[in-house]
Amino acid sequence: MIRVLITGFAPFGGERVNPSWQAASLVAAEPPAGLTVTAAELPCVFGASLDALRDAVRAENPDLVLCLGQAGGRPGVTVERVGINVDDARIPDNAGGQPIDEPVVPGGPAAYFSTLPVKACVAAIREAGVPAAVSNTAGTFVCNHVAYGLGHLIATEYPHLRGGFVHVPWAPDQVPDGTAPSLPPATVAHGLRALLATAARTPAEQDLKVTEGATH
C-alpha cells in the first residue's frame, strides 16, 4: 500500500469553511484503491503551517504528500507547477501576520518544482469529469508558503518523498449568489482521487509531453 498524506487549510479571510480541508477529508475517508490516505489540517498561518506539515510528515512517514489550498475565483482544480521563495501577503494570516517580500526559507533556492507528474495529474482529473488545469503560480500567501516549504522539506530532509500542491475552487455555499466559479467538495475529491492514483504510479520524469503552458 502506498501511504499518502493529504493536507488542507483551516478557513481564513472571514470564511466559515475551507474547501481544501473539506476535499482532503473526503479523500481520506474514501481513498483510491491501493492507497492509504491520512488527512491533516494546517493552520492558515505563516511558519506554523510548515511546522504542522513537518510534524504530519514525521508522524505518518508517507510516500507521497498532496497539499491543498483554496483559490477563490479559479474555475477548476489547478495543479501547481512551482512554489517560489517569497512571502508577500495581501491580507493578514489567521494569526495577524502579514510578511511582505520575505523569504519562505532564508538562503533557500528561488523555487522548487513539484515532484509530481503535473500534466498527467491534470489529465487524470479531467478524465474523471472534473475541470482542471496546470497553474504556474501558487500566489504569495500561505498556499505558496506551504508549496515551497514542502519542496524544501523534500529536498533537505525527505529525499524519498514525492509531493506537490493543488488549488481548489470555492465551494458553492461560499458564493451563494453564483457570481463566481465554484465546485462541490465532493466533486473536487473525486478528481483528487484520480490525481492520486495517477501520481502514485507515474514518476515526475515520465510526465505527459503535452501543451499546458500559458502566455500570462
- Sequence of secondary-structure elements: EHEHEEEEHEHEH
N→C terminal distance = 40 Å
Give the C-alpha Rg: 16 Å
Q: Shape, please?
A: globular
Oligomer: single chain
Specify the structural class: alpha/beta
Q: How many strands appear in the DSSP assignment?
A: 8
Spatial strand order of the main sheet: 2-1-3-8-4-7
Give the biggest sheet: 6 strands, mixed
Mean pLDDT: 97
Task: Explain this structure.
The protein is 31% helix and 20% strand. The chain is built from 5 helices and 8 strands, in the order E-H-E-H-E-E-E-E-H-E-H-E-H. It has helices at 19-29, 48-60, 118-127, 142-156, 185-201, and strands at 2-9, 35-42, 64-70, 77-80, 82-84, 111-113, 132-135, 162-168. The protein has a 6-stranded mixed sheet with strand order 2-1-3-8-4-7, sandwiched between helices. It has a two-stranded antiparallel sheet with strand order 5-6. Helix 1 links the parallel strand 1 and strand 2 (35-42). Helix 3 (118-127) packs across helix 5 (185-201). The chain is globular and about 40 Å long. 47% of the residues are buried. GO terms for molecular function: pyroglutamyl-peptidase activity. Homotetramer.
